[in-house]
Design a protein that fits this description.
Blueprint lengths: L2 H10 L2 E7 L5 E10 L9 H28 L13 H4 L13 H15 L1 H15 L8 H28 L9 H33 L2 H5 L26 H19 L34 H4 L3 H5 L3 E5 L2 E5 L1 H6 L3 E8 L5 E10 H7 L7 E6 L8 E3 L2 H5 L4 E6 L2 E2 L9 E3 L12 E7 L2
Parallel strand pairs: 3-12
Antiparallel strand pairs: 1-2, 3-4, 5-6, 6-9, 7-8, 7-12, 9-10, 9-11
Helix pairs in contact: 2-4, 2-5, 2-7, 4-9, 5-9, 6-7
Protein name: Molybdopterin-dependent oxidoreductase
Keywords: Membrane, Transmembrane, Transmembrane helix
Pfam family, one: Oxidored_molyb
């Protein structure tokens, strides 16, 4: 092929292809020397990609582990808690979720969401650094290359899906036509498999790339002295003049991550930092007084009215039969007060002082034993998480309450009046509001 014809063929694919002489003196068109006219940054190359990969490696492992722990915290092995098809395969690691320390779920889910948000700029920078590989031609050169491309597709697709659905969930903005809970779990396992495969394939390359150029030397280089890496498939063959050093790129990505983290982390902490949580949804009525904390599902959404709540009776079913209690009847039983956080899958949490009847006392009042657990049902009008199976540990923990008051004040209607459960270390959706029936499940 002549040099002119080689250039025309390359231009047809949005590239300019250099022709080079082969051993026989003739010209050949090689994939390795294809030059993409749109990927010209002098920063892009093995070192930057490896550095971003290293920056993601440990944090992504933490995000994965805390995400799997979040799934375990839902006690999906108990009846009614999980409708995920194929759970038997996906839930091989499941165990009984503890109730002590009571802030455990607040820590794991808060870390999962806060770290995930902080990693968004790093993930975007990593995708930017390898974007030429996503469009390389020919798309498949060998079986090994095809497997690498497939793992890359699953990796990129998996992490984009998880981050997009996760951020939408944080904002309680459910625009997707599927269950976040189920889809996020499936997406997580797709991403985990691709992530493990990618790390196994690329870890040696990452180490070699980082060892090739000392970090101090790279980060000490000014913009004017910034040069492309010596070689590599991501290195531009006709680079543009540098407009930023690798040190500047690292600072930009790090500052973006720190900013997002700072705008979010206040949701998981008590105190003045809660005022800086600008990333939190701002269309919620937080209520007043002790009831001034986030509401994911309002009474109106749940079909609960004040008149219906005032006419309420709690049904307590167990070996002794079914008993009914008014709110005054429950208030006449021994009351207990505990400081417990309520933490939701969206990542927000807050510590409150709750007062009510111990669930363990209600189990015994219904004729149950210390080996029995509770099935909790809300009188809300349908919707997700209107019922939950509590484990034996959750049902018998001293701090597990059927709460009537928060902060010394009567629960507001949006926060579960006339009564709601509060379970130490459990996801907020398992702190059932508008409890209508408690059923003792015997061992």
């Amino acid at each position: 092929m002549s040099p002119r014809l080689a250039g025309r063929v390359g231009s047809a694919y949005g590239t300019v292809t250099r022709a080079s002489r082969g051993p026989s003196g003739g010209y050949h068109c090689g994939v390795e020397i294809r030059e993409r006219t749109i990927w010209r940054s002098p920063l892009r190359g093995p070192w930057l990609t490896a550095a971003l990969g290293l920056a993601l490696l440990v944090p992504l492992v933490v995000v994965i582990v805390t995400g799997l722990l979040s799934y375990a915290a839902y006690e999906p092995n108990l009846p009614g808690n999980d409708a995920t098809p194929g759970k038997e395969l996906l839930g091989f690691y499941l165990f009984d979720w503890p109730t002590d320390p009571p802030w455990l779920y607040r820590l794991t889910q808060g870390a999962h969401v806060a770290l995930g948000i902080a990693l968004v700029p790093v993930v975007l920078a990593k995708l930017w650094s390898v974007i030429p590989k996503l469009f390389e031609l020919p798309p498949v050169r060998s079986i090994g290359h095809a497997l690498e491309r497939a793992s890359l597709l699953l990796l990129v697709g998996g992490i984009v899906f998880e981050f997009v659905t996760g951020i939408l969930n944080i904002q309680v903005f459910y625009v997707f036509p599927f269950s976040f809970y189920t889809a996020h779990l499936y997406g997580a396992w797709v991403f985990i498999g691709a992530f493990v495969a990618h790390v196994l394939l690329k870890f040696p390359t990452m180490v070699r790339s980082l060892r090739a150029r000392p970090v101090r030397e790279v980060l000490a280089t000014s913009t004017a002295d910034t040069r492309p890496d010596p070689d590599g498939p991501l290195v531009a063959t006709d680079p543009s003049p540098p407009t930023m050093s690798r040190r500047g790129a690292a600072a930009f990505v790090g500052a973006a991550s720190a900013t997002l983290f700072g705008l979010y982390v206040g949701q998981t902490l008590d105190g003045p930092l809660r005022r800086t949580a600008l990333f939190a949804p701002h269309d919620r009525d937080l209520g007043e007084g002790a009831n001034a904390f986030p509401v994911n599902k309002t009474a109106e959404t749940a079909g609960v009215t004040r008149a219906r709540a005032d006419a309420w009776r709690l049904e307590l079913a167990g070996p002794s039969g079914t008993q009914r209690f008014t709110r005054a009847d429950l208030a006449a039983l021994p009351q207990h007060t505990y400081d417990l956080p309520i933490a939701c899958v969206e990542g927000w949490s807050i510590s409150c002082t709750w007062t009510g009847v111990r669930l363990a006392d209600l189990v015994r009042l219904a004729g149950g034993s210390t080996q029995d657990r509770l099935f909790v049902e809300s009188f809300q009008a349908g919707g997700a998480f209107g019922q939950v199976s509590l484990s034996v540990g959750q049902s018998q923990a001293d701090e597990s309450l059927l709460a009537l008051f928060v902060g010394g004040e009567e629960l507001s209607l949006d926060h579960g009046y006339p009564a709601r459960t509060i379970i130490p270390a459990a996801p907020g959706v398992h702190a059932t509001k508008w409890v209508g029936r408690l059923t003792v499940v015997t061992a």
